């Protein structure tokens, strides 16, 4: 029995010219295929990867996709050429912009995310919350009465 040949994927060398060449595209027609999206963007450069997001249950396009170009300059040209344009079959113009890179979160954004996470139930320390509902405070707020 013969095994199928092994496929090897090589990492691209890292440099400033290829970094951050990933685009986020929204407003795509729900009927647009991945191949059609690649054809639309290929006029701006060499596409490394592309993907259209689909609903897990229905398999229907969400109208959102990602395109990764070989070089950042190609991605910039695609933004200039396609952002705000209406591709064939589209009712509305598409939005083309650089995709957010999760590794580029600033310290402040990370702190904000952690502070607002669902695991954090109270906005402040517990004693601050309970103090707000003391009878003295409630009477004062409702009737202007101080005990």
UniProtKB/TrEMBL annotation:
Gene3D superfamilies: 3.30.70.330
Keywords: Repeat, RNA-binding
One function term, GO molecular function aspect: RNA binding
Residue ranges occupied by any RRM domain in the UniProt entry: 21-101
Source organism superkingdom: Eukaryota
A Pfam family of this chain: RRM_1
A cellular-component GO term for this protein: ribonucleoprotein complex
Protein name stated in the entry: RRM domain-containing protein
């Amino acid at each position: 029995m013969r095994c199928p040949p092994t496929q090897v994927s090589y990492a691209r060398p890292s440099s400033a010219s290829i970094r951050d060449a990933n685009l986020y595209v929204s407003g795509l027609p729900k009927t647009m295929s991945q191949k059609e999206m690649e054809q639309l963007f290929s006029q701006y450069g060499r596409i490394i990867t592309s993907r259209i997001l689909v609903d897990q249950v229905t398999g229907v396009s969400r109208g959102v996709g990602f395109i990764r170009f070989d070089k950042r300059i190609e991605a910039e040209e695609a933004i200039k050429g396609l952002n705000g344009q209406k591709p064939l079959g589209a009712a509305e113009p598409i939005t083309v912009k650089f995709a957010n890179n999760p590794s580029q979160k600033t310290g402040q954004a990370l702190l904000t995310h952690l502070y607002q996470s669902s695991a954090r139930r109270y906005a402040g320390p517990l004693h601050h919350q309970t103090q707000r509902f003391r009878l003295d405070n409630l009477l004062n707020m409702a009737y202007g009465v101080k005990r």
